[in-house]
Amino acid sequence: MVEVSTSILTMDEKDISKTIMNLEIAKTDYFHIDVMDGKFVTKNTYAKMLNYSSYIKRISNLPLDVHLMVEDVQSAVDDFLSLEPNIITFHFESFDNEDKEKNRKDILDMIRYIKDNNCKVGLAIKPNTNLEDIYEFLPYIHMCLIMTVEPGKGGQELITSTLKKIENLKTYIDKNDIDIDIEVDGGINLVTAKDVKKSGANILVSGTAVLMAKDYKVIIDELRK
Ligand code: DX5
Ligand code: ZN
Question: What whole-number distance in Å separates Cα of residue 24 and Cα of residue 61?
């Protein structure tokens, strides 16, 4: 079953409560929280996304799907754990020490830390990162987030070469009997949704395409079909 996680990155700051309420009425499956630290990516949405998340927690029961685009994963995980999200996803590329063995160990430790704090965990990779680099972590996580745009901002076009990557991931997890969700993120609209679902994605992140729609429910239902 396909789920939709609406990114609130480009939400109009004028009517936040109205937007959140309308997304809840439209039955988005998750709110996708794009946390950017101004270092891992240029934009800094850190304080804003902490704010939005605590507001959503107060007025809605819908789960938070937190996407960390940060260098300091540990502090961001600690900040967002306090909001009891459904899942926290961090980037494989956030662990970029020269010593590959250290990166491997740090990633496994972070996966365990998030799970030990009763939260699901996801691992995200940028468009240019090879799938093979994260195969070893797949048995320990709940979701793999395949970036279909360069992380950093909303409203970009889906990079079509990522479709093959989604297909390869789906083939790999099926072949190895690994039960994880495949989330895709960036440039997902009514046209590209068909391609990514065909490739094997089961959670679609969409920001611009949903937020610009007159009726959120129509577009969310369409994306799910
Ligand atoms: C980009 C974010 C995405 C983005 C999706 O770095 O991770 O979640 O906000 O927005 P659209 O759907 O506008 O590409
Ligand atoms: Zn995102």
Answer: 9
Tell me which residue range forms the domain holding 146.
3-224
Closest ligand to C-alpha of residue 6 is: 1
Atom of ligand 1 nearest to the CA of 186: 14
Tens digit of each residue's pLDDT (9 = 90 or more) over 133-165: 999 999 999 999 999 999 999 999 999 999 999
Residue where the block lists tokens 């260098």: 71
pTM: 0.98
Q: The domain spanning residue 53 has which CATH number?
A: 3.20.20.70
Q: What would the pLDDT profile of 23-62 be if each residue is shown by its tens digit? A: 999 999 999 999 999 999 999 999 999 999 999 999 999 9
Overall number of domains in the chain: 1
Q: Which ligand is nearest to the CA of 186?
A: 1
Q: Any residues with Cβ below 6 Å from ligand 1, and which?
A: 7, 9, 32, 34, 67, 149, 151-156, 185-188, 205-209
Distance 26 CA to ligand 2 centre (A): 20
Nearest Cα neighbor of 221 from 22, 32, 26 is 26
How many beta carbons lie within 10 A of that of residue 46, not counting itself? 18
d(CA 123, CA 67): 9
